[in-house]
Design goal:
This protein is an all-alpha fold. It has a single domain, classed as Up-down Bundle (de novo design (two linked rop proteins)), CATH 1.20.1440.60. Helix content is 63%, strand content 0%. The chain contains four helices and no strands. The N and C termini lie close together (11 Å).
């Protein structure tokens, strides 16, 4: 069982998600830089940050709390992506219209990974 957050697969996947969200939010209109783009980025960054902070805590209960926070941020991010799909007109060939934003299955998979993280006692 790992004791270092960088070894956790859910942390690694969450870091990949952050990179993808930063890349994809560059497609948003300039007027959304301080709106949806900022919200999407903050929610995405919160996911691996909570996993890492939880792994560094002293008890299983604290770790579970931070994994719960990470799941909450994942749901927040999914909601914001749905808002983008509903409100923002993207070009025909944009990643959003091609379905290349993170899929529902990816969110569910990441959520499962967060829930199934082995909890250790320090």
């Amino acid at each position: 069982m790992t004791r270092y957050y960088m070894d956790l697969i859910c942390w690694q996947k969450a870091m990949d998600l952050v990179t993808e969200i930063y890349r994809l939010t560059k497609q948003l209109p300039k007027e959304e830089v301080f709106g949806l783009a900022s919200q999407l980025r903050r929610a995405a960054v919160s996911i691996p940050s909570n996993i890492a902070e939880g792994q560094g805590r002293l008890s299983k209960g604290e770790f579970r709390t931070f994994l719960g926070n990470a799941r909450g941020s994942l749901s927040e991010l999914e909601t914001q992506i749905i808002i983008c799909k509903n409100l923002i007109a993207f070009a025909e060939n944009s990643y959003l219209n091609e379905g290349k934003w993170v899929s529902r299955e990816s969110f569910q998979g990441a959520g499962f990974l967060i829930v199934s993280v082995p909890i250790h006692d320090p």
